[in-house]
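Lab channel / #folding
Pinned by the channel admin:
"Please post every new chain as: sequence first, then the structure tokens as a reply. Keep commentary short and put observations after the output so the thread stays searchable."

First post following the new format, from NK:
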Amino acid sequence: MKSFASFPDLGEFRFVSGLLDNSIELPCDIPLKRSWLHAGDDAAQFDGWLVTKDLSVEGTHFRLDWSSPEEAVEKNIVSNVSDISAMGGKPQIALLGLCLNKNWTENEKNRVAEAFKKGLAKRGIALIGGDTVTGSIGVFSLTLLGAPQEHVLCRNGASVGENIFVVGSLGKSAAGLWILENCPEEKTRFQRLVDYHLSPKIIENAGTELVKVGVRGACIDISDGLSSELTHLAKSSQVGMQIFENKLPIDSEVLEMSAFFGLNPLNFALNGGEEYQLLFTSSLDEVIFNKNGSFSVTCIGSVIEGNAVLIQNEKGNRILEAGAYTHL
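Reply from TO:
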């Protein structure tokens, strides 16, 4: 039975009470196995739970002159959900820390709260606590706990001879950001790319579906860029990676946008962050868990001996350096 403490009738507590109002019940299907995994993967694991935290900082991850409060909140939730998904889990419990910009209007603050409440509830995630403050910029700090399946996907699971796969298409978020920063007057021409950067739409149960169809290799979400994530998998698994330029599923609109502005779409596909699609390895020759054609899984290469990440085109192989965005 749900039981919340009574809050004094003060501004902060009214805000928190509204955030918790009508939140869903705690899940009953807790992890069946006790297991532990230290830092270094998309999520840690303790006592069976998968646990992750992602921050969204105003001016770095979102700007309310570009996006709505709802889009900014969705982006933060998706970034956390994709971490749990990359481990083959389902998010179930949330702790939320909010720093509300003191210059936001009451309407903007309330929209942020409502977006978190609805965004978590529609995914079946119970919000059980957190903290709220105000400051000079807005910060969202979401911690998710997820229940894994019988097999947990980790970055160190790649083996020589496996294929390398990507879920969905590449380059959308980075291309959308480039438009906002460089040619905002053209954003309606490439609205889908801009929208994807502001509020990514991913297959949120992709990780659980991969486990169901027999994937037992390594997995990671593409949050910092394909080149960086391939390097993570190679180093964690102590193997090499070989991908093929002509097999990369660069989004069709990224190709169109790059041609329009005279840019190289490969840069968006290889080094574009905030994609949140899954990159994984498997001994399977083909991975199909999509029945209605709403997304795709593409084989882009294979796991090889050694420790280098290579990319091949018509000119031959070259070492692919990790060229993704870094916050530091």
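NK: The chain has two domains: 11-148, 163-319.
TO: also worth noting, The longest strand covers residues 89-101.
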